Amino acid sequence: MKLKLLFPALMLFASAYAQQGTPVVQAPAAKEDFKDDWADLNHYSKENKLLGDPKTGEKRVVFLGSSIFENWKKMVPEFFAGRPYINRGVSGQISPQLLIRFRQDVIDLKPKAVIILAGSNDISGSTGHVTNETIMNNIRSMVQLAKANKIKVILCAYLPVFDYPWRKGIEPAGKIMSLNKEIIAYAKKNKLVLLDYFTPLVDDRNGQKAELTLDGVHPNVAGYAIMAPVTEAAIAKALK
Questions:
Q1: Contact, 96 vs 136, CB < 8 A?
Q2: Worst-scoring range by mean pLDDT, 24-28, 53-57, 90-94, 133-137?
Q3: Structural domain of residue 214, as residue ranges?
Q4: Whole-Å CA distances, 186 to 28, 90, 143
Q5: Where are the beta strands (DSSP E) in the chain?
Q6: CA distances from 79 to 12, 143, 163, 224, 229 (A)
């Protein structure tokens, strides 16, 4: 009788010992997957949270674009230091990505004005489906969103490009000039401030002046020094 009682007790003890002695192995935390974030909203999400609302009297201006703007902050950070200028450039982005980012990276930051620089990456893309009309539709949508949120709009005439080093032979100069013509007309019709980056940088081939560019597409420090005063003038005009 005692043996019958002892056996279950031993089994219970062994089970308890096994549970205590076996280390618990936790599954590794799943790595966050951003492949659904086509517009790269994650790029500035943390910075936006830390930024907070504008201070009293602050006339915040958001620079929305791609590598032209992102490189500017990296190469000439002093232009943005001490000014209420928020750089939200993401290298390689096309106009529909800027449109998707517009709420998070512009509207939610409550700026007084936004500078929209869009179109070149669309033109240099490899899909073959981009037209000036699709670029302009995205620009129009961003302008309408800005106006609905009482944000002044500064539209940019794009920088000249004679050829893209990564996509030789697509002859972008004429396409950019054609797009700029539409941007200028749209800005005039809708009484928007135009920021002309094309004219001060263009050479006799309708590309960028060699002394002002890294690769024929992106400005160097000297190029940004030319862009700075025309940008300041456009901001002053928009905010007056």
A1: no
A2: 24-28
A3: 58-239
A4: 53, 25, 10
A5: 61-65, 85-89, 113-116, 152-157, 193-196
A6: 73, 25, 28, 9, 10
For residues 84 and 31, the answer to whether their CB atoms sit within 8 Å is no
Q: How confident is the model at residue 10 (pLDDT cuts 50, 70, 90)?
A: very low
Cβ-Cβ contacts under 8 Å for 100 (sequence gap 6 or more): 38, 39, 41
Give the chain's domain count.
Answer: 1
50, part of any domain = no
Spell out a b/e string for 150-173, using b for 16 or more CB atoms within 10 Å of the CB, else e.
Answer: ebbbbbbbbbbbbbbeeeeeeebb
Token pair 């279950």 is at which residue?
8
Q: What is the pLDDT of residue 1?
A: 47
The residues pairing with 87 across neighbouring beta strands, listed in sequence order, are: 63
**What secondary structure, in 3-state letters, does 19-84 show?**
HHHCCCCCCCCCCCCCCCCCCCCHHHHHHHHHHCCCCCCCCCEEEEECHHHHHHHHHCHHHCCCCC
Do the domain assignments include residue 16?
Answer: no
Q: Does residue 14 lie within any of the structural domains?
A: no
Domain membership of residue 96 (yes or no) is yes
**Angstrom distance (rounded) from CA 43 to CA 88:** 9
Task: Supply the pLDDT for residue 28.
Answer: 66
CATH number at residue 69: 3.40.50.1110
The DSSP call for residue 155 is: E
